[in-house]
Amino acid sequence: MTKDDFTRQDILLESGTNEVEIMEFVLRDQYFGVNVAKVKQMLSFDRSNLTELPLSPDVVMGLYTFRDSAIPLLDLGIAFDLSNEKRGKKPLIMVCEFNKIINGFFIDSVKRIHRLPWSDIRPLDEAISKNNFSVTGAVTLKDHEILLIDLEAIIGELNPELKEKDIEEETSDDQNKQTDQITIIAAEDSAFMRKQILRNLNKAGFNNIHSFPDGKKAYDAVLDFCEQAKKEAREVTDFFQVIVTDIEMPLMDGLTLCKNVKDSPVLKNVFVLVYSSLITDEMAMKCKAVGADAYLSKTQMDKMITILNEFAQNRGS
Predict the structure, then answer these.
(1) What is the torsion angle, in degrees rounded to the nearest 10, for the CA atoms of residue 147, residue 151, residue 153 and residue 158?
(2) Residue 150 domain-assigned?
(3) Where does a domain end: 160, 186, 201?
(4) Do the Cβ atoms of 243 and 222 come closer than 8 Å?
(5) Residue 264 is part of which domain span?
């Protein structure tokens, strides 16, 4: 799995199957994984293509030439504070694209691709995830463990503007009195992104939020609301009206969560917004296939708030 022509188009998964392709790679003697959907290409490292940047953090190796453009190159070993003693002799660059931005990540080697159900991937304990934004989950294989890394969080740690990104004031001011009538179920495995989403929803006036670190916990909450609505002979939308969900999450992914909701006659009027770093033209088609009402990249926080404000206003009119 070291071919320079590896592209994420090699792996296509159907929507709503609750499966994921994980690319296993090595940093020193530890095993990590990343969603294949984020991997654009694998390259052999060529130092002549690297331009170092003065006064940059140690984790930033510099700018690397990729397809006639220069992309940031980050050393993941340094990002995880791993010793340099066991560096790979033939390092690779993992070129990734998410949130419509391309970055390179310096790694030691690649092992293989694993096709797994999300149910096999364990989320981190919440007490641990609060202090470790760079890992979102783990999966046990036959003889070793793979840690799934949160590349967005690593980039966010290096970019204060991204880390603390809030909605624009005009978006915040575009509230209406209907926002406090909306209850949202939010599913996001990244503690880094979950904190950011909740902060901005609150800032926009959406204060009735049930937040969960994976799709299964979110769907369990949906079913609990369904049961409560049935007992009280009420509509389930009397209890919650919106789901905001990431796509890649342990136990149950966002597309499966959306499909389960939209396939249920009881839940058909629930508004589902997919909010993911993986949104591309291809992923947009998958979101449509499972019935999502809206889908946005994680760079579009303002647009998410605008859509939810419009939903709240229309529902209250």
Answers:
(1) 130
(2) yes
(3) 160
(4) yes
(5) 165-316
Tens place of pLDDT per residue across the chain (317 aa): 444 444 444 444 566 778 899 999 999 889 999 999 999 999 999 999 999 999 889 999 999 999 989 999 999 999 998 877 767 788 999 999 988 889 999 999 999 999 999 999 998 776 555 556 688 889 998 889 999 998 988 887 776 555 545 666 555 544 556 888 999 999 998 888 898 999 999 999 999 999 999 999 999 999 999 999 999 999 999 999 999 999 999 999 999 999 999 999 999 999 999 999 999 888 999 999 999 999 999 889 999 999 999 999 998 76
The CA distance from 204 to 186, in Å, is 15
Q: Same domain, yes or no, for 40 and 174?
A: no
Same domain, yes or no: 136 and 208 = no
User: Which residues, in sequence order, are bridge partners of residue 117?
Assistant: 19
Is this structure's pTM higher than 0.85?
no
How many residues comprise the chain? Answer: 317
- Say which residues have a Cβ less than 8 Å from residue 38's Cβ, sequence separation at least 6: 8, 96, 97, 98, 151, 277, 278
Cα–Cα distance between 249 and 112 in angstroms, integer?
21
Q: Is the CB of residue 246 less than 8 Å from the CB of residue 218? A: no
